[in-house]
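Can you give me the bound-state structure? Components:
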Amino acid sequence: MSLDDDLLRMLEAHPATARALPWRQTRDPYAILVSEVMLQQTRVDKVLPYYQRFLGLFPDWASLARAETDALLAAWSGLGYYRRVRNLQSAARAVLELGGVPQDEDDLRRLPGVGPYTAAAVCSIAFNRPALALDGNTLRVLTRYFGLSDDPSRPSVRRDLTLRVLPAIPPGRAADLTQALIELGATVCLPQGAPDCEACPLAPGCQARAEGRTRQIPPPRKRRRTERLLWATAVLVRGGRVLLGRNQREGILEDLWECPGVDARPTRSPLQALQDHLESLGLSTRLHPLGEVRHAITFRSIRCQVFQGRIEGDVPLDGNPDWAWVSPEELGARPVPSSTRKILELAAQKSNP
Ligand code: ADE
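Here's the bound-state model for the whole set.
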């Protein structure tokens, strides 16, 4: 059995078993870039509704390039890793400046936010040019196939795989090959030693399978230690509206709208720390505990104690563009992170048990 035979068998099997995903029905490089950026670190089932809505709002490079930050972040709200959509907008602007999207893999890599995986995915899927898109899934498939037990994040492994696979891509089949590899990694060649080798078209030539090493390849990744945060947050209500402020700290939640809150780790009393913070904003009210919300992002695990208070009359931050009293109907149009949505859901449940 040779690699060429195995790849052909994989390509033959692919259309019958592949999931009918919307980004597989298009060759539009814009739509494909949007899908690949959304799929970075995010599961397919989560991406699906966002993808359709995002393309409805921003159907092409030009509409994305001129989008307002709030509308842009609102369309991404809940997907997390908001840096991705800011980069996507910068990429759209760069494409317009260039007068079109580059087809060459190296030129694609020069677009903001486009790394080696995304460049190869767009180059192969949209332009049907030979390029090997290596992410966690496709790396698992190929390191098992070739029996490579080194850490697949090492550049030498990527180079090695690219040297082996690129020349074997059948002419005109680069797009199908990328999709087929992604599909195998997502549905058949599963991690943690649980691959369904019986269903795998690459099984005849797979080294890891032949040597009984699918559990060892790829080696387990070293986990970064989880950072535990304690936060205290206030849901402040005035006339049926809730107070949200624009996050101005540089970082992943920059420009998203959140309830006022404080880092409560350095204090003995999260409630007191929150009350002091609110007073510094000219907001004084009695706070009642509502409960706790837990939220995990990447390597952070956040416990958030939630308090509610009522505000009557005017407050100093009225009219400040970085603060807003938001009605439930207006919430959907604002970029609000998932943690804040959970907090507002808890408050809604407590007020309508
Ligand atoms: N994950 C990353 N890219 C993907 C794609 N094109 N289809 C399905 N899952 C993916």
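A couple of observations. The radius of gyration is 24 Å. The domain at 227-351 is CATH 3.90.79.10 (Nucleoside Triphosphate Pyrophosphohydrolase).
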